[in-house]
Amino acid sequence: MDSMQPPVENYANPRTCLFHVLFKGAALAFYILSALFIDSFVIIFVVTVFLAALDFWVVKNVSGRILVGLRWWNEINEEGESIWKFECLDQESLARMNKKDSWLFWWTLYLTAVAWLFLAIFSLLRFQADYLLVVGVCLTLSIANIVGFTKCRKDAKKQIQQFATQTIASRFTSSLQTAFSVV
Amino acid sequence: MSQEDTIPLHHSSQSDIDEIENLFNVPVHAATVLPARPPSPPRVSIPVSHSSTPLPTYQKVPPSSSSPPVVPAVPAAAAPTGRSSIGVAADAFGSPADTLTEPVWDTVKRDLARIVSNLKLVVFPNPFREDPGRALRDWDLWGPFFFIVFLGLTLSWSASVKKSEVFAVAFAILAAGAIILTMNVLLLGGHIIFFQSLSLLGYCLFPLDVGALVGLLIGNVMVKIVVVAITFAWSCWAAYPFMSAAVNPRRKALALYPVFLMYVSVGFFIIAID
């Protein structure tokens, strides 16, 4: 019976997925658990923010490219203007992306931001301004990545639509041509 | 935080078949087609195409010669149409046990090199420095992050009581101060890019970091005052060209005064910390 089931798609890039999740989890875990074990706010701050910064870098530079084929960055051109660049793979490669990879990518991205948001609310309720600072920095980094990759994805969808309309248009004209040549 | 380097190996928009063919050809001429900027690591990058402008398509740059078994794997994996080019990249990225660490290490080295070059550009005297308004084009925020944290740590260490408050206050003041100073320049009608300015103000903290470190090691107040005065002057000297280039000459003082004020207060903080 089981042999009739289609094989479940596995993660295509387990190591990248691991790193994608590792620093996020480490930052959150360290922040939450440190209150129990570590007395010094300075250490909590530096380690948490450092882990969050590392996570930001990994997501932006490594796992975004490999897991979902998206990439964004900022350039300053010759006139001194700042340009935000959003890029994605061509449509066929995008369509062939591993579904599990991209599911993991997006869901962990959103979940981390939500988690930091909750922690921010907690520290607000407890009037802990310094912990709010830590959480604020981590939240900002998470949101920056979410915004960047969402814009990438929108760009990718626009591209797919353009590609689709182009393909339909070209197919239409070619079938018209064949119709007329036959006649 | 840090910036992406593009690898403009080809300037034409190509069909997918050509792109796959180029995957075969890249190992041959990858060594010769490195850009003039600090070379990107042999990081695996995926072929990309764009909707609007004919920007260069990204080519896959396989990990360097230190992992040769990867290169023959590339053509073999790219040939069957069922595999995505990401699958190829994944193979190249993951097949030998430590290629995941190797490209990352190279990326880290490259980012460190960028931090050092930005530092040299901003802080150290350089008679051949190009137009300051355009000098910090490769802005990155890692440098400022490290410098602000280092300053906070040094101040916190020097403090005998309330160490955490000192750190938190120092970090918050420096970060908020950089943002406010940038907004100040923008509101004065200056032409500066937000992150570029943040990056610049962060790098200009480097002399004060040195001053704080010396103050930590040497307890004598007179020495501290002299050292902090020197490093404060150095910081202001470093920040001056960028800030003044960004605004209308009649508003230069309005833009520069808050910067000096912030550095003065940081200097006093360093001297006064006990």
TrEMBL record, chain A:
GO CC field: Golgi membrane
Keyword Transmembrane helix: yes
Lipid bilayer topology: Multi-pass membrane protein
Function: Golgi membrane protein involved in vesicular trafficking.
Subcellular localization, as worded in the UniProt entry: Golgi apparatus membrane; Membrane
Protein name in the entry: Golgi apparatus membrane protein TVP23
Transmembrane domains' residue ranges: 28-58, 103-125, 131-150
Source organism of this protein record: Zingiber officinale (Ginger)
Main localization category: Golgi
InterPro entries: TVP23-like
GO biological process, any: vesicle-mediated transport
From TrEMBL, chain B:
Keyword Plastid applies: no
GO-annotated biological processes: endoplasmic reticulum to Golgi vesicle-mediated transport
UniProt keyword Cytoplasm, yes or no: no
All residue ranges annotated as the Yip1 domain in the record: 134-268
Principal cellular location given in the protein's record: Golgi
Pfam families (alphabetical): Yip1 (PF04893)
Ranges that cross the membrane: 141-160, 166-188, 200-219, 225-242, 254-273
Annotated segments matching region Disordered: 34-74
Keywords of this entry: Membrane, Transmembrane, Transmembrane helix
InterPro entries: Yip1/4-like (IPR045231), Yip1_dom (IPR006977)
Domain of life: Eukaryota
Gene Ontology cellular-component annotations: Golgi membrane; trans-Golgi network
Topological relation to the membrane, as annotated: Multi-pass membrane protein
Protein name, UniProt field: Protein YIP
Family: Belongs to the YIP1 family.
Subcellular location: Golgi apparatus membrane; Membrane
